[in-house]
Amino acid sequence: MTESAGAMVSEGKRPPREGEPQAGPTRRGSREGLLEGIRKAGVTAIFFAQLLAACVPALSKPRLIIAQIYNAGARSLIIIMLSGLFTGMVLGLQGYGLLHRFGSEAALGTAVALSLLKELGPVLTALLFAGRAGTALTSEIGLMRATDQLTAMEVMAVDPLRYVAAPRFLGGLIAMPLLTAIFIVIGLFGAQLVGVQMMGVDRGIFWSQMQSAVALKDVTEGIVKSLVFGAVLSLIAVNEGYHTDPTAEGVGRATTRTVVASSVLTLLLDYVLTAVFL
Amino acid sequence: MADLQSTPQPSAETDAVIDVRDVHYAVDGRPIFAGLDIRVRRGLITAVMGPSGTGKTTLLRLITGQIYASRGHVSVFGREIGDMGRAEIYATRKRMGMLFQNGALLTDVDVFDNVAFPVREHTNLPEPLIRTLVLTKLEAVGLRGAAHLMPSELSGGMARRVALARAIVMDPEVLIYDEPFVGLDPISLGVILRLIKQMNDALGITSVVVSHDVHEIATIADYSYLLSEGKVVAAGTPAQLAASDSATVRQFMTGGAEGPVPFHYPAADYASELLGEPA
């Protein structure tokens, strides 16, 4: 009885003291939020510059970078291939349905190839990368921070930016275009599977239309987008992990921030890059 | 400051490997140190003791150049940390080894590679030589047989011994221990104690041990500092501290709940808070 009464007292709302700031959004709060946002953007920019500087000496240890390409790239292969296959199959089905209405099924190969190369390939790969590799990077580096491993390196006169952050950034940067290429190839295979094998579009027309309509500029657009996404998403993941609060809760929050920021920035940058390429 | 300061002071200044003078440091406006003075003499085991939250770990970060004092001087090997550039700080750190509270081993590589890590990073020694070096250090901490284990397979005491092997693999002149006894069973604790003493005596390493395990540290320390509220409140040999009549020293050495360090965190009046009255 006394225990529950005690709990009620401690959980009950305490009347606000005089002069105490009240809860709820205030002008002062939003201004502080803005300043905090600007401060964070500045910290990220400085970190990016330091990271780029650390990438040069990191190149002298290719073993570390290869290990990270394996971690971010090879370990994401299954999810990328499966997603690519189903995306391609859906494109084949939807594309066929749409083009059939206008009697232009022959354009299926072109339509699928262009949408995969220019948009779906880079964007979906980036979103999957953020969920699979980005979170893994953030939580790994965050846990290294929380267990003093990064501090231990600093005390051992080993720069953690060079040893931990730079190889992971470079690994992500290199892995992203490769994953995107694989996503697109498997996607084309999936579209062909549905369009040609199931819906009966002529195989020769499917491939030859694609070959004649797709220009180098379209391929370049996909490559540039995937490189930009690779750089931005790897930077976000490494930055969030590197600056995480060294607690279990902090690592969790950093991982969430990685996914949210990566997804939003991917779509935003996709629009910007598309506008640039038009 | 207690009267003990006047007795055998580590005054020989040329002898001081680490010299902390009148250091002030604050975090978010909350002062951690306000005029801290500590000298670590070559070849001795110097203990830094104090209640939790007195900034013992902060002191280690000042000494290793991870943070800078807002006022005062921190010099290591006769050079002021604040005057050093990044390259010099890194060069200085290579002459120091540090043992972290939880070991801070790299979790993605095995025990052998953990100990080999600093050697591979800082030297171009051939692999057979690195192997000999690492096995020698692992043998010194009694874990040569555990070389192939991953850090997740080690007990707390073993992890700390591996971290000790890693800390000495570059033959440092100074070894810094951050709370080396926390959370250890009596056997592991005894092993770590003996190792600290052994490293100090056999290798001639200067040791700084930050700890609040009064009785353990008293058995090996040559000189002890007791910190409280950002200052040294007492300093001397363990015997001198034990004989001190200062209230702070006595509370710390005997583990009293009440004394100069209060049991209660500052709070509003108990009765009025329970009744929910605004203070």
Topology (elements, then pairings):
The complex is a heterodimer of chains A (278) and B (279).
Chain A (H helix, E strand, L loop, with lengths): L1 H10 L15 H32 L3 H11 L4 H25 L6 H39 L2 H7 L4 H39 L4 H11 L2 H27 L5 H30 L1
Helix pairs in contact in A: 2-7, 3-7, 4-5, 4-7, 5-7, 5-8, 5-9, 5-10, 7-9, 9-10
Chain B lengths: L15 E12 L2 E12 L3 E5 L6 H8 L7 E6 L2 E2 L5 H8 L2 E4 L11 H12 L4 H14 L15 H13 L5 E5 L7 H18 L2 E5 L3 H5 L4 E6 L2 E6 L1 H5 L4 H8 L15 H5 L5
Parallel strand pairs in B: 3-8, 3-9, 6-7, 7-8
Antiparallel strand pairs in B: 1-2, 1-4, 4-5, 9-10
Helix pairs in contact in B: 3-4, 3-5, 4-5
Could you explain the architecture of this structure?
The complex is a heterodimer of chains A (278) and B (279). Helices cover 83% and strands 0% of the residues of chain A. Chain A has 278 residues and is mainly α. Chain A has one domain. Chain A starts with a helix and ends with a helix. Chain B is of the alpha/beta class and 279 residues long. Chain B has a domain at 1-91 and 213-256: Rossmann fold. Helix content of chain B is 34%, strand content 23%. In chain B, the strands form two sheets. A six-stranded mixed β-sheet of chain B has the order 6-7-8-3-9-10, sandwiched between helices. A four-stranded antiparallel β-sheet of chain B has the order 2-1-4-5, with helices on one face. The radius of gyration of chain B is 20 Å and the shape is globular. Mean pLDDT of chain B is 85; it is low at 1-12. Classes of the chains: A mainly alpha (278), B alpha/beta (279). Chains A and B meet through helix 6 of A and helix 2 and helix 3 of B.
